[in-house]
């Protein structure tokens, strides 16, 4: 008990000394040991890394989980070291509603059949979103969170310890300065003829006491300087480790971009397949879709509207007459145009022409042809191509 009280009293004395030194520094009444410029730059770099990592982490969490209540719930489960329950994504929930609607409104009707097809696509989109969230959380969010909760806490702890060591060092410097000033004043020997002998003896005794005080203050200063230098070196090594943190976060950022690219590519493929299915679905109304991307500079928005087409008539072949093959279909004498392909397109069957982005093909319309499709020709290959994948040039 006696030992604990002594330690408590010692800690209280150290805390009081640091508080006095800190207060005097704030009011400009005490000198402060300044760190070198390189060390200050390391501190500023570490603070910037911490602040921007927090912002990026919070916004990435919002991107992956826009629902704030769900984010709070996941945070509580993580703090309690419990597994986060599986949650249905918005796409999967929409797919469920569409499937139920199709069952009630009639799965054999055109609307019901289309609902079923769209619900299947939305379900695949929801599954892709779930995989993306899981991958991004592991490869991107977790490393950033580990830095803030692990490495940064260690750096902050060592910085606080360095601050305390600096306050102790400056307090020792101030104590030594005061002791030397008092010693110099005490060593001024009074004139024996004008001063009583008793005062002369007291002055000599005070000089000896202050000399001892100066020796003690110098010893404390050497110890404080050694501890400060050691702590500064430890803190500097941790701050220089921020460069390794940047390299690790860079690797995580590449993983995040990769997972996001995979996710959007999956979504694009699923919707492309759905669009093809709806376009070939019997009895399904397919409106004229808007272009998937705005036209490039120099291209008029009304380019597609100026495409010359032949009058739409019923293309019913006479009984007993076999339809012509695509190779036998000749382009009209006028009305052919050049078109640039905007996106890759995989042909669904032999009647369609596979496309590659940025290639140039010749297109034209045939009587009775669906206005959403054109005939495309590249070399000796012909086939139908969707209008939304083209940018008409001339």
What percentage of the residues does DSSP assign to strands (E)? 5-15%
The shape, in one word, is: elongated
Q: Report the sheet with the most strands, covering strand number, pairing sense and barrel closure.
A: 5 strands, antiparallel
How helix-rich are the residues, as a percent range? Answer: 55-70%
- Radius of gyration, taken over Cα atoms and rounded to an integer in Å: 40 Å
Structure notes:
The protein is of the alpha+beta class. 61% of the residues lie in helices and 6% in strands. It has helices at residues 2-26, 37-64, 68-79, 90-105, 110-186, 197-240, 242-279; strands spanning 337-341, 360-364, 373-378, 381-386, 390-392. The protein has a five-stranded antiparallel sheet, with no helix packed on it. A hairpin with an 8-residue loop joins β2 and β3 (373-378). α2 packs antiparallel against α5 (110-186), α4 runs antiparallel to α5 (110-186) and α5 (110-186) runs antiparallel to α7. The N and C termini lie far apart (96 Å). Mean pLDDT is 78; it is low at 191-195 and 283-324.
Labels describing this entry:
394 residues, alpha+beta, 5-stranded antiparallel sheet, 6% strand, elongated
Helix and strand topology:
Blueprint: H1 2-26, H2 37-64, H3 68-79, H4 90-105, H5 110-186, H6 197-240, H7 242-279, E1 337-341, E2 360-364, E3 373-378, E4 381-386, E5 390-392
Antiparallel strand pairs: 1-2, 1-5, 2-3, 3-4
Helix pairs in contact: 1-5, 2-5, 4-5, 5-6, 5-7
């Amino acid at each position: 008990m006696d030992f604990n009280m002594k330690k408590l009293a010692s800690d209280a004395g150290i805390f009081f000394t640091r508080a006095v030194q800190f207060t005097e520094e704030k009011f400009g009444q005490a000198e402060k040991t300044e760190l070198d410029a390189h060390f200050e730059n390391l501190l500023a770099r570490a603070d910037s890394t911490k602040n921007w990592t927090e912002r990026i982490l919070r916004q990435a969490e919002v991107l992956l989980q826009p629902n704030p209540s769900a984010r709070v719930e996941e945070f509580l489960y993580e703090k309690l070291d419990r597994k986060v329950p599986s949650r249905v994504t918005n796409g999967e929930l929409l797919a469920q509603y569409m499937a139920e609607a199709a069952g009630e409104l009639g799965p054999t009707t055109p609307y019901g059949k289309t609902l079923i097809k769209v619900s299947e696509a939305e379900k695949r989109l929801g599954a892709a979103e779930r995989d993306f969230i899981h991958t991004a959380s592991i490869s991107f969010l977790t490393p950033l969170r580990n830095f803030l909760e692990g490495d940064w806490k260690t750096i902050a702890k060592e910085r606080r310890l360095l601050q305390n060591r600096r306050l102790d060092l400056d307090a020792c410097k101030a104590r030594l300065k005061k002791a030397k000033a008092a010693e110099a004043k005490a060593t001024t020997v009074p004139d024996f003829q004008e001063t009583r002998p008793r005062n002369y003896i007291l002055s000599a005794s005070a000089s000896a006491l202050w000399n001892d005080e100066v020796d003690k203050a110098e010893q404390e200063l050497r110890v404080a300087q050694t501890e400060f230098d050691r702590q500064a070196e430890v803190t500097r090594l941790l701050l220089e480790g921020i460069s390794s943190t940047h390299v690790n976060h860079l690797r995580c950022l590449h993983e995040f971009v990769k997972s996001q690219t995979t996710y959007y590519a999956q979504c694009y493929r699923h919707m492309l397949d759905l669009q093809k299915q709806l376009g070939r679905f019997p009895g399904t109304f397919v409106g004229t879709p808007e272009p998937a991307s705005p036209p490039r500079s120099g291209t008029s928005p009304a380019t597609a509207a100026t495409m010359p087409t032949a009058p739409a008539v019923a293309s019913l072949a006479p009984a007993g007459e076999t339809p012509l093959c695509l190779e036998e279909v000749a382009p009209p004498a006028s009305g052919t145009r050049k078109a640039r392909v905007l996106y890759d397109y995989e042909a669904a069957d032999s009647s369609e022409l596979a496309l590659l982005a940025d290639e140039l093909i010749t297109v034209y319309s045939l009587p009775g042809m669906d206005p959403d499709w054109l005939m495309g020709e590249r070399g000796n290959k012909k086939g139908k191509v969707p209008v939304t994948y083209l940018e008409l040039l001339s």
